Amino acid sequence: MPDRRFAFVDLETSGVSPSEDRITEIGIVLVDGDEQVEEWSSLVDPGVPIPPEITALTGITNEMVRGAPPFEALLPEVARRLEGRVFVAHNARFDYGFLKAEFRRAGERFGADVLCTVRLSRRLFPQYGSHRLDALIDRHRLPSADRHRALGDARAIRAFLQVLPRDADPDELETAIRELLKLPATPPHLDPAHLESLPESPGVYVFIGASGQPLYVGKARNLRERVRGHFYADSRNANDARLVAEVHALEVEPTAGEFGALLREMQRIKTCAPLHNVALRRRETTCFLRAEVPGRAPRIVPLAELEHADPLAEPGLAGPFGSRAGARAALAALGREHRLCDRALGLWARDGACFSRQVRRCDGLCTGDESAETHHARLHAALAPLRFPEWPFAGPVVLVEHDTDTGRVDRLAFDRWRALGPDGEQPFDPDVFKLLRRRIARDPRAFEPLAR
User: Is domain 192-272 classified as CATH 1.10.1660.10?
Assistant: First the structure.
């Protein structure tokens, strides 16, 4: 690991919740390659009482932190030491999460490549049941002075990495570190700074080609992890490899939540028409079914033929369907399930008994054994589960999403199954309809009336 710059970090805290508890001590050991360059630690005034059970574990009392600097005063020193380094911690999610929360409260962002020594130990030594720091100290004969104090534990984590070339296969060690870090292999045409500065928030990203043409639009719960994952050489499939070779630029659009990212992905794909997205591109083939006259086939109605292209403008429609073929396939399935007549469904053009009647799967409208009115009533009942639903609210509604890491709040507004943008109601989009319908079914109370 001679070419890597590490920051071994340990925090002591007043509890386990980054949003409610605070840091009481921070310890950092800086290493360039195999050379230790600095040790630094400081008590931190958490601004909240330290519970007795925490004091019993760490030995840090309320009296000890009284008069210590608050984290905001230490932030420049911490940021300077961590900048550009791999963040190494034991159960790194805990320490990394607390630091991110403290930076956020101070109005700053923090991000780093993270190496968790718990995960590294599990990867290299799966035969052991415990990978707590105490277990590693005993197993690998690590120094244990000042256990449960920040700098003492940071030193122990550093010592763990030092002994791994002795206790594990060097090639396996290098592979494990590389895979846990998931460091991207930046393509030659893309500025590496783009990948270093990615936020760890939900959102949408766009890969752009040499001519400025959008190549691919994707969504992510964590933009940094997802985008960099495309460029991680060991995890690429053939499609990813072809795509990243064409990338010359990158755009990201953070959102406050996953639903907003899904929505923006759909909208960006339809407006950008990226070369590598096909499934969600704007479709002009969306259609509905309308059963009008007894004895006649339901009519396939393109979305564009509806008044204002609004499915709610014509009650009784079934759908939407992605294409005419999809609508006919739905009718065929209903016919098989409900013994409907192929001719009355528009699926049989010959005289005499339809195919389903010939195999005794039709009640006989085509042979005069069932009246047109009875068949029409059964067709209407069969279509009921496919009816386009009424808007379940009294008017426009808003879904509020919060990103607790960044403080971002997005208010996503909808009415009559359509998204509402800055310029008002957007055109009906069947993909947005399906996404919104699933979200409402899961938790309708998450949607609030939109204040006008």
Answer: no
pTM, full prediction:
0.71
Phi, psi of 290 (to 5 degrees): -130, 120
Q: What is the chain's Cα-based Rg? A: 30
**Cα gap 377→393, rounded to integer Å:** 29
Domain with CATH 3.40.1440.10 in the chain: 192-272
42 token code pair: 């400081």
- In the chain, residues under CATH classification 3.30.420.10 are 5-181
Determine the topology of domain 5-181 in CATH: Nucleotidyltransferase; domain 5 (3.30.420)
The answer for residues whose C-beta is within 8 angstroms of residue 111's C-beta and 6 or more apart is: 100, 198, 199, 200, 224
Whether residue 402 lies in the annotated active site: no
192 residue type, one letter: P
Tens-level pLDDT at each residue, the chain (452 residues): 556 899 999 999 999 988 899 999 999 999 998 888 899 999 999 999 999 999 999 999 999 999 999 999 999 999 999 998 999 999 998 999 999 999 989 988 888 889 999 999 999 999 999 999 999 999 999 988 888 899 999 999 999 999 999 999 989 998 899 888 877 777 777 877 788 888 889 999 999 998 899 999 999 999 998 998 887 755 556 666 778 778 888 999 999 999 999 999 998 998 888 988 876 665 678 999 998 878 788 999 999 898 888 899 888 899 999 999 999 999 999 999 999 999 999 999 999 999 999 999 999 999 999 999 999 999 999 999 999 999 999 999 999 999 987 889 999 999 999 999 876 778 899 999 999 999 999 999 999 999 86
Which amino acid does the sequence have at 21?
Answer: D
* Set 90, 131, 140, 148: catalytic member: 148
199 is written with which tokens?
């936020």
